[in-house]
Design a protein that fits this description.
Blueprint (H helix, E strand, L loop, with lengths): L1 H37 L15 E3 L18 E8 L4 E3 L5 E3 L7 E6 L3 E5 H11 L4 H6 L2 H9 L1 H4 L1 H11 L10 E3 L25
Parallel strand pairs: 6-7
Antiparallel strand pairs: 1-2, 2-5, 3-4
Length: 205
């Protein structure tokens, strides 16, 4: 009798475990369904999309300044369009399912402050009339221009140095603005390291 009772107990325990597992499965499906009805996680903002999920237009360039239109405080904005079937909140805060033609957000890009000083003119003046100080007069340094005029470009040495400095865009206009250079031309960006320079933490997906 004891030998026959043991298999029955094991069978009952096995059935109870199977019933508990089924109940847990039903509860899990109910939770998943409830999340689906509730909407789950809120949609991302369009400006938080990853690369490849949107495409931005090329900036419209002002012919007179060779900088993006509506450049203020060294920043301009270009429209970006999310890829088809992407759902996100646009720049107005409205949730949309995009088709690839609507503007989702505006991406800020860097631009420069210019004030009418042409890089080509400055280089040409430095090359041909640098010994008369024309380049320094043009860039707004009248004292140095007069000194170069009186000394014939410091006997040619100052003219050569100024030509190198202006060509490398180290010497610029006296008002602190940038040269007018073709937007897709040969622009130089000076990089410097100071005590306040830090390395930005890399974020990996």
């Amino acid at each position: 009798m004891m030998v026959a009772a043991r298999p029955r107990r094991r069978l009952l325990l096995l059935r109870r475990r199977q019933a508990a597992a089924r109940l847990l499965g039903v509860l899990w499906l109910a939770c998943v369904a409830a999340e689906g009805v509730g909407g789950g996680e809120p949609p991302l903002k369009c400006d938080e999309l990853r690369l490849g999920q949107y495409i931005c237009e090329d900036p419209k360039i002002d012919n007179s300044t060779q900088e993006p239109l509506n450049c203020t405080n060294h920043t301009a904005n270009v429209p970006c369009r999310p890829a088809p079937n992407i759902t996100c909140k646009d720049h107005s805060g409205n949730e949309n399912n995009f088709t690839g033609k609507e503007v989702g957000f505006y991406k800020p890009i860097a631009c420069r402050n210019v004030n009418g000083y042409s890089y080509k003119v400055a280089v040409a003046l430095s090359l041909f009339l640098g010994w008369l100080g024309a380049d320094r007069f043009y860039l707004g340094y009248p004292a140095l221009g007069l000194l170069k005029f009186c000394t014939v470009g410091f006997c040619g040495i100052g003219s050569l140095i100024d030509f190198i400095l202006i060509s490398m865009q180290i010497v610029g206009p006296s008002d602190g603005s940038s040269y007018i250079i073709d937007y897709y031309g040969a622009r130089l960006t000076r990089l410097s390291i100071t005590n306040e320079t830090f390395r930005k933490t890399q974020m990996y997906p």
